[in-house]
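Course assignment 3, question 2. Fill in each field.
Student: A.L.
Task: Predict the tertiary structure for the chain below.
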Amino acid sequence: MSVAYLVFSHRHPEQVLRLLRTLREGSPGAVLLSHHDGPPLEARALRVERVPASPVTWGGASQLLMLLRGLQQALTRDFDWLVVLSGQDYPLRPLAAIERDLARSGVDGFVEGIEVPPPPGDEFSRRYFYRYRRVVEPGRLARRGLRAAAPHLLVRDMPAGVLLGRRVTPPLLPVRRGSDWLSLSRRAVETVAGAPREVIEHFRRTILPTEALPHTVLYASGLPLSGDTRRYTRWDAGAPHPHLLGMDDLDAMLGSGLDFARKFPPGDAVLDELDRVL
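Answer field:
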């Protein structure tokens, strides 16, 4: 049983290095891969393999291409399972126990698979049943006209700019969605990395494609999957991002029996306590 850990990060390099050290100490033979969208991490002593990084725009095609690049590079190495982490994740259990349970799981992946209804549906329908392209700010009158063209056309304001979406039928149905953070067998990684070109082309023009392409492809493959991501997160009502975890969350995290938790603020004392427990 061999495991690879693929870590995506873009800030807090010291926190990322702490996670990589914890992974190396807990699993000396693991394959460690890091994609850090920032100055290169000094992680050679930890035997960390660098995934060539390029600027990543949150929620766009570059985020999906980053994931596929990381999976494809991982497949050049020997592993039975791959765990995808962010730089703000941390293990809640000894890695030996996590890896043993992966080997005994009887499934090929721990990945959510919530079905997305076609429009008119919800926010996720608007993400994945439309193909978007970036446009110049259309102005008030043009926006009014585009609103009248809904649901065939949609305008979305994203951090990187204004997107215009055209409703289409995705090439692989049903569309599924879920968390970015996956634990996959090698067979499941091969399935995602080998997704048909037309499926990749569709999802790379959607919003937050990493939260739908792997899930859609895997659930269409017929592989045995668990919808439990084995990750602990806490969401405050109406918040767009997970709650930053601290000492007040320690008992709930450890009592969950889950494998990893996120997000942790850099340098928080709760990481020291998790190190002590592990």
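Instructor remarks: The domain at 3-115+174-277 is CATH 3.90.550.10 (Spore Coat Polysaccharide Biosynthesis Protein SpsA; Chain A). The two ends are 21 Å apart (CA to CA).
Grade: pending
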